[in-house]
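task queued by scheduler; priority normal; single chain, no ligands, no partner chains; default sampling; output format set to structure tokens
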Amino acid sequence: MYTKMYLMIILGVLISILAVLNMKGDIRSIHWYNRTKVKESDIPKYGKVVGLGTLIIGISLIFNGLVQLIFEKAFDSIMIAGVIIGCCIMLYGQIKYNKGIF
């Protein structure tokens, strides 16, 4: 029973680490076709926006896993809301700096 929660927390931490790397300007973890049209001067901005969206997703996974461990009750709506908000932010950055989704 606890395995699912620990895996969710570990996944959230890994995603958050990637997000911080993106926010610092290292966008190598983002698919090559999602960054093909990003101008060299926009890489830091693109990394911050995409990293922020990724960080929100990671934190929502960590938070949901911790809440389930402490209260033994699932609050999947927190995780779903975090994923939706994070994806919207990443999509915004993708459209603004890469001039489209692909």
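post-processing summary
- Residues 37 and 98 are 5 Å apart (CA to CA).
- The chain has three helices and no strands.
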